[in-house]
């Protein structure tokens, strides 16, 4: 069963959180509420999130300060942040948001369709990265198990396991290519395009490692690319 991605919604107003849940419920992912910056940071200690929707104007720790804490943590620094703000901001205010690490900056009231589309892109990228990590983990288990030995619970010969991994990787490559084309067609923001390109580079590295393990290549211990 495919795990659902978690989306963190951060806003001090319950009615705003309810509205975000209504807009994003169609994505069929796990929506997690946080009513303050402190509560958001606490949730990020234990769970992995595909994207964070972060209100700028909050009492106590505001959105900018919360984002700064998120970006300082190694575990959370790469999670995309979309800032939501109800105030009439100028260029300096917007720049501050991007400087704090936001991938997007949306003013309220926002178009529900646009917000849902932007969030769905980051959810798709997150899911592709999860698939890539799974393929890399399977291959590492095979190599660490002695190269010629099947992993626990696996009755396949090494060649058969490599063929299965190659087929799974091909499916992820196909999905990543389709996603990249969709981003190009929709003129998506630069951050989403860059993230998709990063994913494709990781897929290319994993493909090379798999190819190097094929019989007759002369390499039985190819180095694997980091999936992070």
UniProtKB/TrEMBL annotation:
The modification 4-aspartylphosphate is found at residue 55. The keyword Coiled coil applies. The keyword Methyltransferase does not apply. It holds the Pfam family Response_reg. PROSITE patterns: RESPONSE_REGULATORY (PS50110). Residues 6-123 form the Response regulatory domain. This is Response regulator. The lineage of its organism: Bacteria, Bacillati, Actinomycetota, Actinomycetes, Kitasatosporales.
């Amino acid at each position: 069963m495919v795990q659902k991605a978690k989306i963190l919604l951060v806003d001090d107003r319950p009615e705003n959180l309810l509205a975000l849940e209504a807009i994003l419920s169609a994505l069929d992912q796990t929506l997690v509420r946080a009513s303050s910056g402190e509560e958001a940071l606490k949730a990020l200690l234990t769970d992995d999130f595909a994207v964070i929707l972060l209100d700028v104007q909050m009492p106590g720790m505001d959105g900018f300060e919360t984002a700064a804490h998120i970006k300082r943590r190694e575990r959370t620094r790469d999670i995309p942040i979309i800032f939501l703000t109800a105030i009439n901001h100028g260029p300096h205010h917007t720049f501050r948001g991007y400087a704090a690490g936001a991938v997007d900056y949306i003013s309220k009231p926002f178009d529900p369709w646009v917000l849902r589309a932007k969030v769905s892109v980051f959810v798709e990228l997150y899911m592709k990265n999860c698939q890539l990590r799974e393929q890399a983990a399977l291959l590492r288990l095979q190599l660490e198990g002695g190269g010629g030995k099947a992993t626990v619970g696996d009755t396949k010969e090494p060649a058969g396991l490599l063929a299965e991994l190659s087929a799974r990787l091909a499916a992820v490559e196909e999905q990543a290519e389709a996603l990249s084309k969709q981003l190009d067609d929709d003129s998506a923001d630069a951050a989403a395009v860059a993230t998709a390109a990063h994913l494709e580079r990781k897929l290319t590295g994993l493909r090379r490692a798999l190819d190097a393990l094929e019989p007759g290549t002369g390499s039985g211990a190819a180095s694997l690319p980091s999936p992070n």
